[in-house]
Amino acid sequence: MFLEKNMKGESKMLKKLLVPTDGSDSAYKAIYYARDLLKHKIAEEVVILHVGPAIGENWGFYGLSKVDFELKYQCVLDDAGKRILRLAREPFEKEGLPVETVYLCGDLAETIVNYAEENDFKAIIIGNKGFSKIAELLLGSVCDRVIRLAKIPVMVIR
């Protein structure tokens, strides 16, 4: 495990962990792992992040540029993202543990890494496989991109 060390070389608690989720089984394994780190006082704070697609940025390319369409489907995707986060909170709430959830839109890997850097997280805990199997074959997985882009430790949960 990647615990921080103090000046004497002793392990100390990880202050702040980011756990991205897409609602997949693999993401839930990462959520439960982070919950256990918090429960056993190895972590001090856990934030669960869901990144939804930003329709306005890319969907015009597919001929889906009407504002009404974009707003309607952005709302549907936002609702799905909020549901994913609500379910992700449950393992923490059942244990009486604090957890914060954040919903953002944008490119998945870049948004995860930028959010982690901007908010001084000490590590990212991520599931190794998400829902996007076709995109993974064509572009590589979000997990792989996060590992390549992140400047902080990334723990991959299988």
Number of strands: 7
- End-to-end distance: 15 Å
Question: Major β-sheet, in short?
Answer: 5 strands, parallel
What is the 3D shape? Answer: globular
Backbone structural class: alpha/beta
Per DSSP, the total helix count is 6
Strand content: 15-25%
User: What is the mean pLDDT?
Assistant: 82
Rg, please? Answer: 17 Å
Task: State the strand order across the main sheet.
Answer: 5-4-3-6-7
Q: Which percent bin holds the helix content?
A: 40-55%
Q: Uncertain spans, ≥5 residues at pLDDT below 50?
A: none
Order of helices and strands: EEEHEHHEHEHHE
Please summarize what this structure is.
With 158 residues, this protein is of the alpha/beta class. It has six helices and seven strands, in the order E-E-E-H-E-H-H-E-H-E-H-H-E.
What can you tell me about this protein's structure?
α4 runs parallel beside α6 (142-149). The strands form two sheets. The chain has a five-stranded parallel beta sheet, sandwiched between helices. Strands 1-2 form a two-stranded antiparallel ribbon. It is built from six helices and seven strands. The chain is an alpha/beta fold. The protein is globular, with a radius of gyration of 17 Å.
